[in-house]
Amino acid sequence: MALPLRYNIRNVLVRWRSTITTILGIALVVSVYVLMQAMAAGIEKSSANTGSPDNLLIIRRGSTAESSSIVSREQLRTLLYSPEIARTAADEPLVSADVLVLLNLPRRDGGGEANVLLRGVSPRGRDLRAQVVLVEGRWFDRGKREVVVSQRLAARFAGFGLNEEFRSGPATYRVVGHTDAGKSAFDSEVWMDADEARALFDREQYSSLLVRPKDAEAATNLIARLEKDKRLQLVAHVESAYYAKQTGTATPIKWLGNFLAIAMSVGAVFAAMNTMYAAVGARTREIGTLRVLGFRRRTVVLSFLLEGALLAGLGGALGCALSLFMNGYAVGTLNFATFSETVFEFRITPALMLQGLLFSIVVGILGTLLPALRASRLPVIAALKSL
Amino acid sequence: MTLSGFVIRNAFRNKRRALLSTLSVAASLFLLVTLQTFLRELTVPPEDVGASLRIAVRNKVSLGMPLPARQRPLIEKIPGIAAVTPFTYFGGRFRDEEFTRFAQFAVDPQVFTNVFVDAYCPPEQLAEWFKDRNSCIVGQDTLKRYGIKVGDKMRLTGTFYPVDLDLKIAGAYSGTPDDRSVFFHHKNLDEMLGGGQTVGTWWVRAASAEVAPQVISTLNATFANTAAEVRAETESAFQLGFVSMWGNVRLLIGSISSVVVFTLLLVAVSTMSMAIRERFRELAILKALGYRRRELFGFILAESFGLAMVGALLGAGGAYALFSSIDIQKLSGGMFVFFEVTPRLVAMAFTVAAALGIVAAIPPAIAVARTSVVDGLKTLD
Asked: Which of A274, A368, B251, B299 could be cross-linked to B20 through a Cys-Cys bond (beta carbons 3.0 to 4.6 Å apart)?
C-alpha cells in the first residue's frame, strides 16, 4: 500500500523554513535555465519568421551572407526583365535591388556605440516584404535623406525617435516613420531608398536582389538557370529559407544555457540532498513506525522520492512563473552574420516551461534518491529507539 | 581539546552534510568564476606592448565602409606619425570551413612591422615576404592548428570580395596576444580587384605616447567634412568599441551571476541553520557552562566560514585548474581564445565565499542567542 500524498505534503509544510529555501533555490535555477533557452528560442523565432517563401533572394556566389554580397548594376539589368519574374499591374517587374550599409551609431542610453544595419530598398521592396508595416509616421521620400526605423530599434539608439535626426558620416538623416516587422529580422533594420543610399554611401553596386517569381515553377527555373549560368556568378535562395538558416547567434547562447543548467543543477542537487538527508534524519522514528505498521521499504523510498519531486516541482513551477515576467522582453546583441545589432524577444513557450518543470523534477529526484534509500534501510528497532 | 579542534570536529561530525554543503558552494563558485571569465573574454580586449602607441583609423560611418586610398599621403604628412599601413579585412574562408576563425588582412609589409612591433617574425622570413607579392605571414597558432608550415600554399575563398587568394606562406609570426591572423600584400588584393582606390582601415603608430592624443585629433580634423570622414582612436578604444555591441548580453551575464550568488546564500544559510538546530542542546549546555553568546557566535562563524572557504578553494581553484589546463581554443572551435581565470576573479570568488560564510552564520547565531538555557536543554533533535 502506498503512503497517502497528504503525508508528504504535510511533511513539506512542517519544515517550512528549509522548504522555502529549497524551493527558492530550485526556482532560481529553473528560471535561469528557462530564460537562456527562451533567448535562443527568440533568436530562432526571429530568423524563422523572416521573409516570404514566395520570394527569391539573389546574392553573389561565394558570399556567406547578404551583407557581404555584391550585385552589380549590370547583373541587375540582365535579370530585371527575366520571364520568370512577376509583374505589377503597371507591368513593372517585382524586383527590389537592395543595398546594405552598416552604420555605427550611439546608443540611446549612452552605453557606447553599436552597428545598425541600414537597408536601401528599391520602390518594389516594400511590396515584396508585406510583413513590414508602418505603425507611426510615414514612409520615406526619395532624395530627402529620410529613413524609417523599426520601433524596436527606436528604443535603443539615439536620434531614432519619430522626427528626430541622427548623423552618420558627413550627412544627417531624419526618421520619418516607425515600422513593425512582426518580430522578424527586419525589426533590426533601418530603411531608406536604395539609390539614395548608394549615392550617399558611395556604393556603385547593390548588395542583393529580392525577386518575386510568377509561380513555383518559375522559381525553380530561375534557381536552376542561375545555378547553370557561370557568367552571372549569382545564387538564388528562397527568402524564408535563407533567413531560417541565419541562426548562428543562437548557438553560443544555447551552449551557455546548457552549461549554466548543468553547473547550477549540480549545485542544486547537492543542496536538495542536504535538505532531504536532514528530513530523513529528523524523521527516523517516524520511518521506524511506518515500517512497524507494515509499510514496505519500497513504499518508503517511493514516498520520499515523491516528496522530493513535489518540493522540486514546486520550485520549478515558481521558476517558470518568475521567468514569465521576462516573456516578450526585447533584448539586443551582436549578430555574427550581419555584424550588427539584432533585436529579439525572450520567448517563453509552453514547451520550454514544461522542460523547466521536468528539469526541476529530475533535480528533485536525483537529490532525494540517496536519502530515500537510506531511510528505507534504517533498521526498524534502532529507528524506533532513536530520539 | 583546543577550541579550533572543537570547531573542526563539529564541522565534520556529520561528514555527509559537510561534504554536500562544501560541494554545493564549490559548484556555484565554479559557475560564478566561469561566468565572469566568459564576460571578461567578451569585454576585456587583450593588451599588447605596442597598443598604447597604435591608432586605428576607420570610416566614421562604420567599419563596414571603406576609406579612399588617397588619404595615405595626407596621413603620412601629419607630424608625430611614425608609420602608417593600410589594413583591410579580407574575410576569406579557408579550406571548406563554414566559418573561418582566423582573420586575414591586406597590409603594406614594409610598414606593417613598424606598426605592429610586437609581432616577431625571423628576418629571413620577413625578407622573403617583402620580396614575394603573392606570399603572406601566418600566426603560429593557425599554422599549428591546421598542421601547415612555412613554404606551403594556402587558398582563401573571398566572401566579402569576389576574388580568391592563393598565398605562399613566407613566414610565421608570434608574440602578439592572439597569434592567429594572416597578413598579405595589399598590392596583391588591389591587383586582383583591379582597383586600389580603397582600403578597409588605416593603422598608425604614433612616435610617442605624448603625441598620440594630438595625432588622433589631427587625424579626425584632417578628414572632417570630406566624403570619407574618419574616426581615429587608440587601439584599446577601438577594441572597446566592440564591447558595447554585445548589448544586453553583458547585463544578462551580470544578472545570472547575482542570481547564482543569491541562490548560494540561500543554500548556505539553510545548511548552517540545519547544522546548528541539530546541536541546540549542546549549545545550551555550553551556555550553561558559562560560554558567552559572543563565543558561541565565534564557534558557529568559524565553522560556517571554514566550510565556505573550502568550497571556494574547490570551486575557484577547480575552475582555475580546469581552464588553464585545457585547450579552450580547440574545444570551443575558436570562439574563445584565452579564457583566462585571472587572480582578480579568484580573489572575487574568495570574497564572495567569505561574505557567504559570515552571513550564513548570523541567523543560526541569533536563534542560539535568543534561546534560554532551559529551552535549549529541552529541545529534542
From this structure: A274
What is the residue extent of each domain of chain A?
A: 5-48+248-385, 62-232
Q: How far apart are CA B120 and CA B123, in angstroms?
A: 9
Q: How far is A193 from A120, CA to CA, in rounded Å?
A: 5
Evaluate whether B337 touches B329 at the Cβ level (below 8 Å): yes
pLDDT in the model for residue A261: 81
Tell me if chain B has a CB within 8 Å of the CB of A132: no
Residue A157 DSSP symbol: B
Amino acid at the residue A49: N
**pLDDT value of residue A377:** 85
Q: What is the DSSP string of B202-257?
A: EEEEESSTTTHHHHHHHHHHHTTTSSS-EEEEEHHHHHHHHHGGGTHHHHHHHHHH
**pTM, whole model, 2 decimals?**
0.85
The predicted pLDDT at position B284 comes to 86
- Is residue B94 a contact partner of residue B154, using CB atoms and an 8 Å limit? yes
Residue type, B337: V
Q: Hey, of B61, B93, B236, B240, which one would you mutate to test binding to chain A, going by the most A CBs within 10 A of its CB? A: B61
Residues 245-304, chain A: which have Cβ within 8 Å of B?
248, 252, 256, 259-260, 263-264, 266-268, 270-271, 273-275, 277-278, 281-282
Q: Environment class of residue B290 by beta-carbon count within 10 Å: exposed (0-12), middle (13-18) or buried (19+)?
A: exposed
**Nearest-angstrom CA–CA distance, A281 and A302:** 17
pLDDT tens per residue, chain B (381 residues)?
677 888 888 888 888 888 888 888 898 899 899 889 988 887 776 666 667 789 999 999 999 899 999 999 999 999 999 999 999 999 899 988 777 889 999 999 999 988 988 889 999 999 999 999 999 999 998 999 899 999 999 999 988 888 999 999 999 999 888 888 999 999 999 999 887 889 999 999 999 988 999 999 999 999 998 889 999 999 888 888 888 888 888 888 888 888 888 887 787 788 778 878 778 888 888 888 888 888 889 989 999 999 999 999 999 999 999 998 887 777 766 667 778 899 999 999 999 999 999 998 998 888 888 888 888 787 654
Pick A341's closest partner by Cβ from B35, B241, B245.
B245
Helix B248-278 and helix B15-43, axial crossing angle in degrees, nearest 10: 170
Asked whether the beta carbons of B150 and B169 are under 8 A apart, the reply is yes
Indicate the residue of A32, A103, A281 with minimum beta-carbon distance to B62: A103
User: In chain A, what are the helix, strand and coil shares in percent, each to the nearest 5?
Assistant: 50, 20, 30
Amino acid at A309: A
Beta strands A171-180 and A146-150, pairing class? parallel
Give the closest residue to B278 by CA, choosing from B368, B370, B374, B372: B368
- CA pair distance B180, B178, nearest whole angstrom: 6
Give start and end residues of each alpha helix (H) in chain B: 3-11, 15-43, 71-76, 109-115, 123-131, 140-146, 186-193, 212-222, 235-243, 248-278, 280-288, 293-325, 328-331, 343-370, 373-378
In DSSP terms, which residues pair with A192 in a beta bridge? A120
Q: Which of A84-88, A245-249, B134-138, B212-216 has the lowest mean pLDDT?
A: A245-249
Residue A189, beta-bridge partner list: A117
The single-letter DSSP state of residue A80 is: H
